[in-house]
Specification:
Alpha-Beta Plaits, Rossmann fold, 17 strands
Length: 321
Amino acid sequence: MQWLELSVTVDTEAVESVSELFAQYGYNGGVAVEEAIIPSLDSPEYQIDTNKPVIVRTYLLANEQAADAQTNIERSLWVLGMMRPVGDLQVKTIAEEDWANAWKEHYRTRRIGQRFVIVPSWLEHEATENDVVLNLDPGMAFGTGLHPTTQLCLELMELIEFNNTTVLDLGCGSGILAVGAAKLGSQRVLALDTDPIAVEATAENARINHAETLVTALEGSLGDAPLEHWLGWEGAQLGTPQSYRHHNEFDVILANILAKVHVVLGNDYLAALKPGGVLITSGIINEREADVVAAFEAVGLEQVERRTQGDWVAFTHRKPA
């Protein structure tokens, strides 16, 4: 039996978009991401070179369906290439005996912020006392922690208290934020997404991290806002998610979603938070920052933290006590 290795070189902000695309066609949803690194001269530690492009790979069985899958991938990459730098699709044939471990070679443990460590599920990591380890499977093609919006959320999460809290992760993707909240001490996390694939991924990721009793993943949204596909693709098939309304229920809300949805959700965030509750929002391109700031100010949410990375902005707000 033979396999096809499909790879493409992209900039860092296109990694998660390409990863989800590849996961739709790759064997078992497997996606490998190879980042450029700067090795240390005197230790096994390394740094990610964020100035260099990233290679994303997936693998297909070399059968009669492979040609159609390759054509569909090429078309979608062309569309993505209109928004972000995306290279040409590279395809090579590899033998069965070489396939089993080929994709694992490109995964490494990576640290985000001061405490979070993202570890591929088959690798060992000797955690320090303050490490919060998030084990991810390659099938979890989105929410890998590579995108600046995810990193900003994790960094802001380190600054607040999660012990014995009730948390909402809105637009949960792979559930990386939901699991992170559980590992920081939350007693209950509700993870909502309008994409059923994301809901399945969150549930599986929670299981891998032994957080399945703390994290509940459901298909749904908050209030009446159109919680669109996390990539912003129009026409995405999102099913018929339930609209949830919560009042004074959550100590923390985590929302890494589109800026225009944040604007609509201002009142829903306020209603769902307990008095004194914390809202962490990301996914905000800097051109839309003023819109989000104005919307949150209008409903009485108090800004307490602002962070940026590249073109992206993230906030921590608090509901008045």
